[in-house]
Amino acid sequence: MKNIYKILFGGLLLVTVMSCNDEFLENEQFSTTPQNVTSVGDLQALMYGALVEARDVTYYGRDMIIYGSVRSDLAYNTVASGRFRGPSQFSMLSTDAYARDTFTKIYQVIAQLNIIINSDFQDAARANEIMNVKGQALVLRANAYFDLLKLYGQEHSGGTLGVPLVLAYSGTGSEKPSRSTLVETHAQIAADFEAGVTSISNSGLASSSKDLINIHAANGLAARYYLYKGTTQADNASLQLAYDHASDVINNGSYTVIGADLYVNSFAQNKTSSNSIFEIEVGTQAKLGTTSIAYMYSDNGYGDINALPGFIASFSAVDVRADLINGNNVDTKYPLIDGSNSIKILRYEEVLLTRAEANLRLGINAAEADSDVNAVVTNRDLPAYAGITLAETLEERKKELFFEGIRYFDMLRLGMDIPGWTPAGTLDNTYLYGNTKLAFAIPQRELDVNPNMQPNPGY
To answer: Do you know which InterPro entries this protein is assigned to (predicted)?
Structure first.
């Protein structure tokens, strides 16, 4: 299998392009470079293609979400099917398929986005559309590098290295990039988010689409990133940006918190829930089947990823969120066992909780923080808070976003030690903050073909 840099740089890049229907179903394969883009339709097709790559099971279709759940205080892996043993037990090697395949897939997504970003195609009559799709690509590239940083960067494992920053398609195949520093990686992510938000905003094209990046999805994803950076680095400027981007969504979007009566069923809806900001469409013809996250979570599938008893017990008896848990299985956040559900990447509730946390850390407006958190909890059949604390806000975030791929990375940004669990759900080990195992291995395949690539310690 080709090294990722040959996928990115070598010869003509094979791009998966999807037509613009509701399910991205009509696959068309063709080879393209930035110079081959000759229409707005080409750019839009490349965008759909990037989203198709992102829904692969090695990225958002399963693995990224499971990594963020099973390496935490929420879940354990029974390993009944043998899947995710290495990631869940912190026993991966540099030859591990999970570390390799997710690394490769995210860079494949970036490769397609780079073609959009670097295209010099112009059409004066459709300049705003070009600006908009390039803005979407910048936001998605920022998010992709953010995901790479969270998995492979050394921010929480005692080092200073981030990930390789591949920003252009060169066509030579000769590049062997080294890893950028954490500082450089963060700078690129922030630059892409800001440029993407600006481009989408300046395009003047308003969109209510939930399966493409509109201005609210762009701001919401940026807020998620800046909250991570701000808490990891005790950086108030980033926390302010998290607050500002979240406020833009709250003040200018038309989203609402889903009510308690509709909460459980809302996860079965594709692109229609009032709280959904961004989701990746799958559909019946592209369903992920037994490889899907639904199959890993459900007791009607493999059911390997179970909620920990202590976490289940933390819910109030009247908290509707507990209704998502069936025994130890969480099979209603991804309810369709055939894997045809849209993958919900960003919900309005997260944006409210992000603003509340940034607000409390900065001491901006305590009443507003109360209001943001209460908008969530009162719609979960719980009483409102008065004078909510940071600890209470973090607990509500944990309960609201469980099994959505958020918790592990929240624990890391908060500087927490990470528990390791046996297949029976008992504590087996504790990985102290800074342990080298908190970063994934750089794939051995990359190390073998690129002498400039630096490994992560401990592998």
So the answer is: SusD-like_N (IPR033985), SusD_RagB_dom (IPR012944), TPR-like_helical_dom_sf (IPR011990)
Q: Determine whether 420 is exposed, middle or buried from the number of CB atoms within 10 Å of its CB (0-12, 13-18, 19+).
A: middle
Is residue 61 within 8 A of residue 293, CB to CB? The reply is yes
Q: What are the tokens at 25?
A: 């179903």
* Per-residue pLDDT reduced to its tens digit, 58-93: 999 999 999 999 999 999 999 999 999 999 999 999
* Residues 133, 48: Cα–Cα separation, whole Å: 10
Residue 412 has pLDDT above 60, yes or no: yes
Q: What pLDDT shows up at residue 19?
A: 37
Instruction: Give the separation between CA 365 and CA 381, rounded to whole angstroms.
Output: 25
Domain with CATH 1.25.40.390 in the chain: 1-180+417-459
Q: Are 80 and 301 in contact (CB under 8 A)?
A: no
Show Cβ contacts of residue 377 under 8 Å, excluding neighbours closer than 6 positions.
Answer: 383, 384, 385, 396
- Pairing verdict, β 13-18 and 27-32: antiparallel
**What is the pLDDT, as a whole number, of residue 448?**
96
pLDDT of 124? 97
Report the pLDDT value the prediction gives residue 151, as an integer from 0 to 100.
99
C-alpha dist (Å) from residue 297 to 238, 306, 385: 34, 7, 32
Q: What is the pLDDT of residue 332?
A: 86
Q: What is the mean pLDDT of residues 12-40?
A: 51
Q: Give the bridge partners for 448, in sequence order.
A: none
The predicted structure's pLDDT at residue 36:
86
Residue type (1 letter), 19:
S
What's the gap between Cα 390 and its chain centre? 24
Helix, strand, coil fractions of the chain, as percent rounded to 5: 50, 10, 40
- What is the per-residue pLDDT for 171? 60
* Residue 358 and residue 240 in contact, taking contact as beta carbons nearer than 8 Å: yes
Buried-exposed string 24-47: b where 16+ CB fall within 10 A, e elsewhere:
beeeeeeebbbeebeebebbbbbb
* Contacts of 313 by beta carbon, 8 Å cutoff, 6+ apart: none
Cα dihedral value 123, 128, 130, 131, nearest 10:
130
Look at the domain 1-180+417-459 and name its fold: 1.25.40
Whether residue 10 is predicted with pLDDT greater than 50 in this model: the reply is: no
Q: Residue range 3-21: average pLDDT?
A: 41
**What's the CA gap between 425 and 403, in Å, rounded?**
16
* Token couple for 360: 């409390």
